[in-house]
């Protein structure tokens, strides 16, 4: 009797799935372009990972090139330059994480406190517009603003009686320029997610806090921030998965040989060596190393989040 029941349930399962797919065909059709994009540009190119284990020759192609195993990884870890670029990548990425990750949260909390709707929309628009500016343009703006001869920043410094500073050529300042320009460009865009989460918090919680005598600061601390916890955890996990992504386009636009010691990251090293010396196997090994480390960090962070009672990413 039980066997016949399980057989009937198994027969109904495919029919139910077909009915479900047919009922929501429009939603699946909307998802289709994103799936096609992922397959073409994310999954299909993954076959090229084997270049990291081959002595790649452009004429012979990927599959016909000689297999060398872990030779490229051994060479990579033996390079003094690789230690430097990993250190620079971690430092820049951690600086952006520590200083840049809280910035959208603070901005969203501040915007949420604005009671004049028109002013709130204006400020929000002004803060997220830099996200759409190319790093090439931002780099040009940085050069103009920080120029030791004509930049407005150095003009102000000179007005106070100090010597001009070569910000973009000084190793002591360059990383800070990267971090601050990244915060200026992306904080407003990141705040949109947190603002959406704040809107979803039950208004009765704020009313109850007001009745209990809580001021605006205490309401932010005891109502708004707890309501953002799950969103913060998810975005932090995703950020940790990209801890070795220190901003390829930004660094490539702004850096130059004078600051290689503090600004050369894994991505720019791969780009420069891969195109400059045609060592495609070596650079693919560096990229694979970065991806594996990022994947491991994401899994560990997700496990930690689950142990702390959060849902995590997966």
Automatic annotation (TrEMBL):
**UniProt-annotated location(s):** Cell membrane
Tree of life domain: Bacteria
Domain named ABC transmembrane type-1 is located at 86-301
Q: How is it placed in the membrane, per its record?
A: Multi-pass membrane protein
Protein name per its UniProtKB record: Sugar ABC transporter permease
For this UniProt record, the keywords arranged alphabetically read as follows:
Cell membrane, Membrane, Transmembrane, Transmembrane helix, Transport
Q: Which family does it belong to?
A: Belongs to the binding-protein-dependent transport system permease family.
Enumerate the transmembrane spans.
21-41, 90-111, 132-153, 220-238, 280-301
